[in-house]
């Protein structure tokens, strides 16, 4: 099978969220960057499992500057065969998706994987956009997938449960928790990753329809009001009269 | 110029999400100009009901009987958007809406902003709208260049109101391309409000000590009509079903009231719930980080407090 995994770089989950340049840019100082967990833990690992089962290749793709190579090398260390970086500073998911689609167009990938969302912009947009560019079906929020080489059976997370679908032929899949188990790269993988091909390709789409004008932090909580555990009537009264939520 | 809203009707019925989307479409039309047209795909008992929430007309594509497949839906919505000259298309930020928004943006050559929580405004030669980013830890004001946009609306973001009366329904027959995706089955919990739509949520974590103790959480939830949720370790160990997991890697929610019992409040959990309007934390550890994010806190053993809280709610309801 020919498998493509879209990976992106995000701040790690406990990173301090602050802004700079008049609140127009994310403040990267002191922030550690990681591979987006949905891409790494679920999408990439499930792709590797399919390759182990059916044979084939796993290619990782990232749209971004040379600074992203660290994250791409990690995908190679975990087990991807080769990688592509589309060299542009992407401003929006539409720009990312258009570039991935341009790369994938004539490659004949059986499954194109994305994470269900990136943990920074939480857009959940790239998978659907790539699918539309390529005219492929899009199966989102997959928490389980079996693939027999030509047809896949996928469980998707939906509101309050799951939906099980069959999909024939090539498709785009977004991975949610449960699709696979995280793999930690071992020393051999890390050494091999240095010699695996990481091809840098020029961007075909450099303009963006959407941009961020400014960021704001949520208003600070005014402080917790502690309630006497013996007096739950008081808590109910406050929820009713003060917070007015019940 | 018009605003086209996809009103989802799972099993032929509208849920709150559909009314929210239509009402948001109505507000968007007021802001950007034009009328709000609702689109219903597949079987639906009473499409005209959407008029009460601000639709001036409903286009009902009843001939499509397949599942909510992203490719087919995008084709249908794209065709209708072209027919009515839609400048903005609104969907819910739901498993269906999220799957469509990106596709539709490509198809219509429109800017996409997902999970919006404000009404879009035309300014500086574009459209601006806000959305949460960094898993709810911040908000971004986004600018869409041009005059066409696709927006997916975050649940519980804006209040809804019945503002009008039922509206005319126009039946339309639209062909969708055959899909290679077939739905085999849907397994959902019946009779419970899905978490992303829930206004009241009762959630519990490892402090419960085991799945056999969940009765007190169910009792509390039932008493106030809340949906139950849980923390990640609880879902990972199989104490509770996966779809109940709220947090950064689970479902992100925004209820009016979030009651958390026996959850310490790791940053990844907070990311999924910190947009809740009111947070009540019950934990016997005074150092639990969740207290810092709470509006009300009760520092005591949850096995004493939760049943007492349930009784207090019952008393209030009976009063």
Describe the structure.
The complex is a heterodimer of chains A (246) and B (319). With 246 residues, chain A is an alpha/beta fold. Chain A has a single domain, classed as HUPs (Rossmann fold). Chain A contains six helices and 15 strands. Chain A has a nine-stranded mixed beta sheet, with helices on both faces. In chain A, strands 2-5 form a two-stranded antiparallel ribbon. In chain A, strands 3-4 form a two-stranded antiparallel sheet. The termini of chain A are far apart. The model of chain A has no long low-confidence stretch (mean pLDDT 96). Chain B starts with a strand and ends with a helix. In chain B, the strands form three sheets. Chain B has a seven-stranded parallel beta sheet with strand order 5-9-4-1-2-3-10, sandwiched between helices. With 319 residues, chain B is α/β, with parallel strands linked by helices. Helix content of chain B is 27%, strand content 28%. In chain B, α2 crosses α3 and α4 packs parallel to α7. Chain B has two domains: 171 residues, 3-Layer(aba) Sandwich (Rossmann fold); 124 residues, Rossmann fold (3-Layer(aba) Sandwich). The chains are: A alpha/beta (246), B alpha/beta (319).
What attributes does this structure have?
heterodimer; A: 246 residues; alpha/beta; Rossmann fold; two-stranded antiparallel ribbon; 15 strands; globular; B: 319 residues; seven-stranded parallel β-sheet; five-stranded parallel β-sheet; 16 strands; elongated
């Amino acid at each position: 099978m020919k498998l493509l995994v879209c990976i992106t770089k995000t701040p790690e989950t406990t990173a301090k969220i602050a802004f700079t340049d008049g609140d127009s840019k994310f403040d990267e100082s002191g922030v550690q960057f990681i591979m987006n967990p949905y891409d790494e833990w679920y999408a990439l690992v499930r792709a590797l499992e399919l390759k182990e089962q059916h044979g084939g290749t796993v290619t990782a793709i990232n749209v971004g500057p040379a600074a992203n190579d660290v994250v791409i090398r990690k995908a190679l260390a975990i087990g991807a065969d080769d990688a592509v970086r589309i060299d542009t500073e992407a401003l929006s998911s539409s720009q990312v998706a258009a570039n991935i689609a341009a790369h994938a167009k004539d490659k004949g990938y059986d499954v194109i994987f994305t994470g269900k969302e990136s943990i920074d912009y939480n857009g959940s947009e790239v998978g659907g956009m790539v699918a539309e560019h390529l005219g492929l079906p899009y199966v989102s929020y997959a928490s389980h997938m079996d693939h027999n080489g030509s047809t896949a059976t996928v469980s998707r997370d939906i509101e309050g449960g799951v939906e099980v679908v069959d999909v024939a032929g090539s498709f785009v899949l977004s991975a949610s928790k449960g699709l696979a188990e995280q793999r930690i790269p071992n020393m051999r993988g890390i050494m091999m990753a240095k010699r695996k091909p990481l091809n840098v390709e020029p961007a075909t789409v450099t303009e963006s329809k959407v941009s961020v004008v400014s960021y704001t932090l949520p208003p600070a909580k005014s402080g917790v009001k502690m309630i006497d555990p013996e007096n739950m009537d008081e808590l109910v009264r406050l929820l009713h009269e003060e917070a007015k939520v019940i | 110029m018009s605003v086209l809203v996809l009103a989802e009707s799972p099993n032929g019925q509208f849920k709150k999400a559909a009314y929210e989307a239509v009402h948001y479409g109505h507000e968007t039309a007021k802001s950007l100009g034009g009328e709000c047209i609702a689109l219903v795909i597949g079987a639906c008992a009473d499409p005209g009901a959407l008029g009460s929430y601000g639709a001036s007309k409903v286009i009902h594509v009843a001939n499509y009987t397949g599942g909510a497949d992203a490719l087919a839906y995008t084709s249908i919505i794209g065709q209708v958007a072209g027919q009515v000259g839609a400048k903005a298309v609104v969907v819910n930020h739901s498993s269906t809406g999220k799957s469509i928004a990106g596709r539709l943006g490509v198809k219509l050559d429109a800017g996409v902003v997902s999970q919006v929580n404000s009404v879009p405004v035309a300014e500086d030669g574009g459209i601006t709208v806000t959305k949460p980013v960094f898993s709810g830890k911040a908000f971004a004001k986004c600018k869409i260049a041009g005059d066409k946009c696709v927006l997916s609306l975050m649940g519980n973001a804006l209040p809804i109101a019945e503002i009008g009366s039922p509206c005319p329904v126009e039946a339309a027959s639209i062909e969708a391309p055959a899909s290679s995706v077939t739905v085999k089955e849907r397994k959902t919990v019946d009779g419970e409000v899905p978490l992303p739509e829930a206004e009241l949520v009762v959630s519990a974590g490892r402090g419960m000590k085991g799945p056999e103790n969940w009765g007190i959480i169910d009792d509390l939830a039932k008493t106030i009509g809340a949906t139950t949720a849980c923390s990640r370790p609880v879902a990972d160990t199989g104490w509770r079903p996966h779809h109940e997991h709220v947090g950064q890697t689970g479902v992100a929610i925004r209820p009016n009231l979030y009651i958390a019992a026996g959850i310490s409040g790791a940053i990844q959990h907070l990311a999924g719930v910190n947009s809740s309007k009111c947070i009540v934390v019950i934990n016997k550890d005074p150092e639990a980080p969740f207290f810092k994010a709470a509006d009300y806190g009760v520092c005591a053993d949850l096995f004493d407090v939760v049943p007492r809280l349930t009784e207090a709610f019952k008393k209030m309801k009976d009063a």
